[in-house]
Amino acid sequence: MNIPPLPGHPHLHYAQGQLQLEGVRLADLAARHGTPLYVYSRAAMLDALAAYQRGFKGRKARICYAMKANSSLAILQLFAQAGCGFDIVSGGELERVLAAGGDPSTVVFSGVGKTRGEMRQALKAGIGCFNVESEAELEVLSSVAQALGLRAPVSIRVNPNVDAKTHPYISTGLKGNKFGIAHERVLATYRRAASLPGLHVKGIDCHIGSQITEATPYLDAMDRVLDLVQAIEAAGIAIEHIDFGGGLGIDYQGDAPPAADALWAQLLARLDARGQGDRMLMIEPGRSLVGNAGVCLTEVLYLKPGEQKNFCIVDAAMNDLPRPMMYEAFHGIVPLAQQRAGETQVYDVVGPICESGDWLGRERTLAVQPGDLLAVLSAGAYCSAMGSTYNTRARPAEILVDGSAAHLIRERESVSDIFRSERLVPAKI
Ligand code: LLP
Predict the structure, then answer these.
(1) Number of H helices, E strands in the chain
(2) CATH topology of domain 5-41+291-418
(3) Is residue 383 within 8 Å of residue 318, measured between CB atoms?
(4) Rounded to a whole number, what is the largest CA-CA distance in the chain?
(5) Which atom of ligand 1 sits closest to the CA of residue 131?
(6) DSSP 3-state of 65
(7) Which of 223, 270, 285, 378 is closest to 52 using CA atoms?
(8) What is residue 176's three-state secondary structure?
(9) CA 88 to centroid of ligand 1, rounded, Å
(10) Coil, strand or helix: which one is 67?
């Protein structure tokens, strides 16, 4: 009996009672590679990208994958080959782009705290644009570029003061956030940028937050950015491109964000109505390209019934899946073997780490036994990339599934990898 795909996860389905990602049985991967294990679907990533590509068909546009969501080299390689540029936030991310075969001229560099060293590295590599986040950064960037005999391509990141209606930790477009330059200061900052010898003004940039599930905040931000473009160009400074950031949400728990192509149809209509539709557009999606393409497999270690709660203790933890602990985020949790006939119980699914914040799901109804395997869903974005080795837990392996093939794209870390760079002090005599 074949069951339709899980909602929001078009490439994840049960076949003969076993959970499969594309054509690969996840239990087979767990048996071969152990758990915890991240597994990603290539087709799901390319489908998510295709929605944006459809949205921009016939337009001058560049999709810069916000690689902070998942920066594994093979995933960068996949997006580079599919024609994407990259949004980076560190010199380390730039090195990853180059190692994966990405083209530096398609890279935009965001972030409030770029160091002089990172600026030099990015200038020498020939990146496409710096998204500058403060007036102080503008001055430093100009002097760093001048010292190299170069002019840095820049956009100024506008803080449009719109409410993205998302979790406060991932909202970035409000006055109280550290990001971007306040709307009121933008024109003066462009004037200054245009006067600095080490800079070349290229565009304007905006990113209002993450896991956005409504179109309205985007439309409001677009209006504010377009008003600014008009004012900046009236001051004689050409704006070649508009970078509209990322932030489109995914379905974690019945969330219904607009589809990328539908959202962009609305935004492009707004642009066209204002006569701005033929300008080069750039966007920086992260989560919406990879989030629902990945799962994290984990094994049930112990069941621990209690007076107030039952705990299902698994071998993945907050170091592998930090979003529940950090944002009280919901991730679906489903068994790899379709629900066994047996008694269900309500469990808090928790990891082995010595913190009460180490939970992966609360009040989940499951029929499980020790040794059973579970999949934590929506684990393609901000899971492996935000992972740590807390409690000296080595990082999981990662697999990229392509049809019925499964490629190991990251080996499981060993404990000696973790402490390789540490040193003992000389023994006392
Ligand atoms: N561009 C910039 C400048 C950003 O800061 C971000 C995300 C993106 C693009 C991509 O946003 P996305 O399309 O992925 O929403 N760790 C949090 C999310 C942090 C997002 C940070 N910035 C989480 O797990 O929910």
Answers:
(1) 12, 21
(2) Lyase, Ornithine Decarboxylase; Chain A, domain 1 (2.40.37)
(3) no
(4) 80
(5) 3
(6) strand
(7) 285
(8) coil
(9) 11
(10) helix
What type of residue sits at position 248?
L
Q: Is the CB of 324 under 6 A from ligand 1?
A: no
Residue 1 has pLDDT above 50, yes or no: no
Kindly state if the Cβ of 69 falls inside 6 Å of ligand 1. yes
> How much is the pLDDT for 8?
86
Instruction: Write the pLDDT tens digit of every residue in 115-157.
Output: 999 999 999 999 999 999 999 999 999 999 999 999 999 999 9
Cα distances (Å, whole numbers) of residue 133 to 87, 115, 232, 349 = 14, 13, 17, 40
Give residue-wise pLDDT tens across range 29-79. Answer: 999 999 999 999 999 999 999 999 999 999 999 999 999 999 999 999 999
Q: Which CATH number fits domain 110-285: 1.20.1250.20, 3.40.50.2300, 3.20.20.10, 3.20.20.70?
A: 3.20.20.10
Over residues 234-257, the pLDDT tens digits come to 999 999 999 999 999 999 999 999
Q: How far apart are CA 342 and CA 366, in angstroms?
A: 10
Contact 101, 74 (CB under 8 A): no
Indicate the SS3 state at residue 282: strand
Identify the CA nearest to 329 among candidates 387, 383, 259.
383
CA angle 302, 387, 20 (to 5 degrees): 60
CB 161 within 8 A of CB 186: no
Rounded CA gap, 307 and 373, in Å?
Answer: 25
Say how many Å lie between the CA of residue 71 and the centre of ligand 1.
13
Q: Is the shortest distance between the CB of 70 and ligand 1 below 6 Å?
A: no
Question: Hey, which bits of 284-339 come out as E strands?
Answer: 294-304, 311-314, 333-335
As a dihedral over the C-alpha atoms of residue 386, residue 102, residue 128, residue 181, rounded to 10 degrees, the angle is -10
Q: What CA–CA distance (Å, rounded) separates 69 from 382? A: 5
Domains of the chain by residue range? 5-41+291-418, 110-285
Sequence-ordered list of residues with C-beta below 8 angstroms from that of 220, at least 6 positions apart, any chain: 160, 162
What token pair was written down for 306? 């209690």
Alpha-carbon dihedral sign for residues 170, 172, 178, 180: positive
